[in-house]
Specification:
Helix content is 15%, strand content 23%. By secondary structure, the chain is α+β, with helices and mostly antiparallel strands. It has one domain (11-94). The longest helix is centred in the first third of the chain and has 8 residues, at 11-18. The protein is globular. 7% of the residues are buried.
């Protein structure tokens, strides 16, 4: 998972490239950062769908929980020895 990337194509270009039909009405973020929106293409029942999603892993610390704060977002797995990632990114396919 990358912290930053830029989408230079339109929603219709992205949908056409990945075979998504019908083309959804979505805003394309010009830059994606941790906790901000991004686009994902996935398949359900043999159809490809394009969906807007929040980018990053949710992170809720003890202090955040005690203060009633919502979870933050982590966009980059920087330290694979950190216990937070022990089960989440064991296999490389879960890292992107």
């Amino acid at each position: 998972m990358s912290r930053l990337h830029i989408i230079a194509a339109s929603v219709s270009d992205i949908a056409t490239h990945f075979g998504v039909a019908p083309v959804p009405m979505l805003d394309v973020p010009t830059e994606t950062t941790e906790g901000a929106g991004g686009l994902a293409v996935f398949e359900r029942n043999g159809r490809r769908l394009l969906k807007a999603m929040d980018w990053g892993f949710p992170r809720l610390t003890r202090v955040m929980r005690e203060q009633g704060d919502p979870p933050g977002r982590i966009g980059l797995v920087a330290d694979l020895t950190n216990p937070l990632w022990a089960d989440l990114v064991v296999h490389p396919r879960y890292r992107c």
